[in-house]
């Protein structure tokens, strides 16, 4: 069978993910494998029609397609995202229709599920026959006990194609609401909100006043008595997406640093704001690939947070509620940096007047939270994220990410290891021997014991 691998790693042939494909090829040599370095060649693919056509011909002639990609900031790399956008922009979805497909990712399992969800949804949108995925850890191939799993995944994929088995869809087609938002001016200037010295910044990939997004941004800005800065990502000189050279890992310095305007934008504008609004229009199953370039380029700081203690809100145009994956990614990105995930306002529901009120109250809430320095506790999304990073940087990836390690150590991020929790240690030392005595165990009322320290807080007038 002819199997085409769409390589989403900007490293091209030097990709770790492609080693998994080469291993499959080595062990199951009877098929004809062809790897296309999509991410590495995205600029050429975008500009050169013939290069694009050759890829389509290759896909057309294939029995099966494997999307092979590294997880980049909870999704696929910006370059592969751009390729997917081209498929829809150039209306060539038919080339993919009814092709058997599977997705292989490598990562440290940090939000690999959101990346896989995204790609699965795209395959369903393209009416491909999605067989399954293999979300490997980057190092799995190095362990003999993991390798058979990879081969079983591949064999299952080939068998499925040979037998022409049925596949199920998991994602319904998106319904875009046909609605034109017409904002109103704020009648009474008294209703305008004072930023109270806080720096509010809106970053968007579109500010076109003819679009709902442009109008929502305008209405949001109008809520304030002060002038609010808006940055359009198209106005920033960004030379390209992260190329995964990993030169940043020693000292957080990016190879692009002297060559484009990304750092000036991020370090002198975004990081300095107290309240951030990230705005965008949904493109396929995420924001645009331009937004994804921004997220990926932030990897120059590796796993070190840059947006700490900020109020972060989003204004999004499109069917957000139909793509819970997007909210999960945005919320996780906010929470793991100890910032406050305030809300997402969309044009999905309600009349223009209702959206006006939402934006007005959103502005009020952002300033009020910023004034009181309110950061709500993280959910599993932020808490789990911090723990995965902490363990990885303390452990196997410390030598590679030394700049992160120094930050984690000096900012007490390793103090959250349970073996350093003195309170828990003392409690366990005292209670475990006691609970091993049957008489004590039988007498112990766990509900009341758990409540004792809470009662102290409730009854103590000084707390
Ligand atoms: C820009 C960038 C972003 C990344 N984001 C994630 C991530 O969100 N989750 C994760 O588990 N790994 C992440 N990684 C790690 C890669 O997914 C991992 O190293 C992968 O195996 C690289 O595969 P490749 O060599 O095929 O590019 C990221 C790496 C880079 C360079």
Structure description:
By secondary structure, this protein is α/β, with parallel strands linked by helices. It has three domains: 2-163, Flavodoxin domain (Rossmann fold), CATH 3.40.50.360; 194-381, Rossmann fold (3-Layer(aba) Sandwich); 395-459, no CATH class. It is 41% helix and 14% strand. The protein is built from 16 helices and ten strands. The protein has helices spanning 17-27, 42-47, 49-60, 78-89, 112-125, 147-163, 212-222, 262-270, 289-297, 324-335, 352-372, 380-394, 402-410, 422-435, 438-443, 446-459; strands at residues 2-7, 32-37, 64-70, 100-107, 129-137, 200-204, 229-232, 275-281, 311-317, 340-346. The strands form two sheets. Strands 2-1-3-4-5 form a five-stranded parallel beta sheet, sandwiched between helices. A five-stranded parallel beta sheet has the order 7-6-8-9-10, sandwiched between helices. Strand 3 (64-70), helix 4 (78-89) and strand 4 form a beta-alpha-beta unit. The mean pLDDT is 97. The structure holds flavin mononucleotide. The site of flavin mononucleotide (FMN) has 22 residues, from strand 4.
């Amino acid at each position: 069978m002819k199997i085409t691998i769409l390589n989403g790693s900007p490293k091209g042939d030097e990709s770790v993910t492609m080693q998994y494909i080469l291993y499959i090829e080595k062990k199951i040599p009877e098929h004809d494998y062809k790897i296309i370095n999509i991410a590495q060649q995205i600029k050429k693919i975008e500009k050169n029609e013939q290069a694009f056509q050759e890829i389509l011909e290759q896909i057309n002639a294939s029995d099966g397609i494997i999307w092979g990609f590294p997880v980049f900031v909870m999704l696929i790399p910006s370059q592969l995202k751009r390729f997917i956008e081209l498929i829809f922009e150039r209306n060539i979805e038919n080339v993919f229709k009814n092709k058997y497909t599977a997705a292989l990712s490598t990562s440290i399992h940090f939000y690999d599920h959101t990346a896989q969800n995204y790609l699965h949804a795209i395959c369903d949108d393209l009416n491909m026959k999605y067989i399954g995925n293999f979300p490997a850890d980057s190092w799995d191939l190095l362990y003999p006990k993991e390798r058979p799993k990879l081969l079983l995944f591949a064999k299952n994929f080939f068998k499925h194609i040979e037998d022409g088995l049925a596949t199920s869809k998991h994602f319904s087609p998106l319904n875009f609401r046909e609605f034109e938002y017409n904002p109103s001016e704020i009648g009474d200037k008294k209703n305008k909100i004072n930023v109270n010295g806080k720096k509010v910044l809106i970053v968007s990939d579109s500010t076109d006043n003819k679009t709902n997004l442009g109008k929502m941004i305008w209405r949001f800005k109008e809520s304030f008595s002060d002038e609010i800065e808006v940055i359009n990502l198209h106005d920033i000189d960004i030379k390209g997406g992260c190329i995964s050279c990993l030169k940043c890992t020693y000292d957080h310095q990016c190879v692009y640093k002297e060559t484009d305007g990304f750092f000036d934008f991020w370090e002198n504008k975004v990081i300095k704001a107290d309240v951030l609004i990230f705005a965008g229009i949904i493109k396929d199953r995420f924001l645009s690939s331009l937004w994804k370039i921004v997220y990926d380029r932030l990897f120059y700081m590796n796993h070190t947070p840059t947006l700490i203690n900020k109020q972060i809100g989003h204004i999004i145009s499109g069917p957000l509620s139909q793509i819970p994956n997007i909210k999960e990614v945005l919320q996780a990105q906010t929470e793991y940096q100890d910032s406050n995930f305030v809300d997402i306002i969309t044009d999905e529901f309600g009349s223009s007047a209702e959206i006006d009120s939402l934006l007005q109250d959103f502005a009020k809430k952002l300033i009020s939270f910023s004034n009181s320095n309110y950061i709500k506790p993280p959910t599993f999304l932020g808490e789990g994220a911090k723990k995965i990073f902490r363990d990885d940087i303390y452990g196997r990836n410390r030598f590679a990410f030394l700049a992160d390690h120094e930050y984690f150590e000096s900012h007490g991020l390793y103090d959250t290891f349970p073996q350093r929790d003195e309170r828990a240690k003392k409690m366990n030392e005292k209670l475990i021997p006691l609970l091993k005595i049957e008489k004590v165990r039988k007498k112990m009322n766990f509900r009341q014991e758990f409540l004792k320290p809470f009662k102290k807080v409730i009854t103590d007038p000084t707390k």
